[in-house]
Amino acid sequence: MTSALPAQLERLSARLTLRLGEFSLDVDWQATIGGVVGIFGPSGAGKSTLLRCLAGLEKQCRGTVQLGEHCWQDTARGVFVAPHQRGVGMVFQDSRLFPHLRVRGNLEYGYRRVPLAERRLSFEQVVGWLNLEALLERAPASLSGGERQRVALGRALLAQPRLLLLDEPLAALDQRRKQDTLPYFKLLRETLAIPILYVSHSLDELVASADHLLLLEEGRLAAYGPLDTLLARVDLSLAQRDDAGAVIEATLAGHDPEHHLSYLDVAGQQLSIARQHLAIGATLRLRIHARDVALCLEPPRRSTLLNIIPATLVELAPAGQPGQVMVKLDIGGQTLLARITQKSAQTLALRAGMPVYALIKSVALMA
After folding, report:
1. How confident is the model at residue 181 (pLDDT cuts 50, 70, 90)?
2. Based on the number of CB atoms within 10 Å of its own CB, is 101 exposed (0-12), middle (13-18) or buried (19 or more)?
3. Max Cα separation, the chain?
4. What percent of the chain has pLDDT over 90?
5. Distance CA 296, CA 83 (A)
């Protein structure tokens, strides 16, 4: 399915405060959004609460919310647009399908209420895109968790929203069903032109789906920007996590069927990765964990490592663990992170501006 909607960028302005017991949300965020914005932060940071405030589901929330020319909330002026009038689609952790309706009835629920002139996505398009044809006459109780989430996503899209909110849509699924369902959510970034806010506690989900990242900490906005830029910042809490790492873009350059490998081009350098079932020339987004990158001043002559990439050392910073250092590297204009010991940094006399070699296991690369 190709994009059924014209390219759409919206200016979102949200100045919101909310107090719930010991927790307080205080967010001031203005951005022109399009594609998928991932919302990430530790448990209790206010991710789901922020979505609920934007959707109008937290009536105690005070402040302003405006999408484009539409003001949904302005407490000072007494403006509060009801959730069903905001043009927002929302998918929760639990699908919240209507149990008394078949899948077809759930999908048609919002679709029938949209005037013909405002239907930018057709019923057939959404059903085909989410592979729901075989499920249309089934009851929600007979569906797997992944199937229910696909139906919930379809129902939200068929309501023709101006803004789509996804609140940890895969969190309730086991790992196998999550892997089966994630490709449908990955296509959101490539297929839909409406702005999407995607809350998840999984960075891998957001790396697969999001263009920009909003980082929340203790109910406050800690950072916002392009996803690859934020993941590469060593001054943020993201770099202190065990799964800290950078995202790079690569082009599929070739395959090695005998060894079940594929070869990627990154700024003229070759990376080996587990076999990818994509066409030559396809663009891939790689997430490379800092813990899987080692450094060397000279390329090793005999090694099991296939990926030995020339790089320039940009910055060294504390890694959040005693005796560890986070190293920021430049490879052809893209950023790579490496977590090494402080002793190694001192032994090699590492400093900004040095040429080094990044050593990466092929089996550690994730596309």
Report:
1. confident
2. middle
3. 71
4. 77
5. 56
Contact call for residues 337 and 287 (beta carbons, < 8 A): no
| Amino acid identity, position 124 | E
- Per DSSP, what are the bridge partners of residue 40? 215
Q: How many CB atoms lie within 10 A of CB 32?
A: 10
Tally Cβ neighbours within 10 Å of residue 117: 6
For residue 124, give every residue at least 6 positions away whose Cβ sits within 8 Å of its Cβ, in sequence order, or none.
Answer: none
Taking a C-beta distance cutoff of 8 angstroms, is the pair 261, 255 a contact? yes
Residue count of the chain: 367
Helix H segments across the chain? 47-55, 103-111, 123-129, 145-158, 175-191, 203-209, 227-231, 342-347
Q: How many CB atoms lie within 10 A of CB 261?
A: 16
Q: How many helices (H) and strands (E) does the chain have?
A: 8, 20
Cβ count within 10 A of residue 125: 16
Question: If residue 159 lies in a helix (H) or strand (E), which one and from where to where?
Answer: none
Report helix, strand or coil for 349.
coil
Per-residue model confidence as pLDDT tens digits over 243-292: 999 999 999 999 999 999 999 999 899 999 999 989 999 999 999 999 99
Residues sharing a CB contact under 8 Å with residue 254, sequence separation 6 or more, in sequence order: 262, 263, 280
Cα separation, 133 vs 107, in Å, equals 12
CA–CA gap between residue 103 and residue 133 (Å, rounded): 10
CA–centroid distance for 288 within its chain: 15
Count CA within 13 A, CB hemisphere, residue 341. Answer: 3
Token pair of 253 as six digits: 């350059």
Write down the pLDDT at residue 62: 97
Cα separations in angstroms, 197 against 154, 162, 262, 346 = 16, 12, 33, 43
Give the 3-state secondary structure of residue 252.
Answer: strand
In tens, the pLDDT along 2-29 reads 444 445 688 999 999 999 999 999 999 9
Q: Strand order of the sheet with strand 324-331?
A: 293-296, 355-360, 307-318, 324-331, 334-341
139's tokens: 């009851």
> What's the pLDDT band for 174 if we cut at 50, 70, 90?
confident
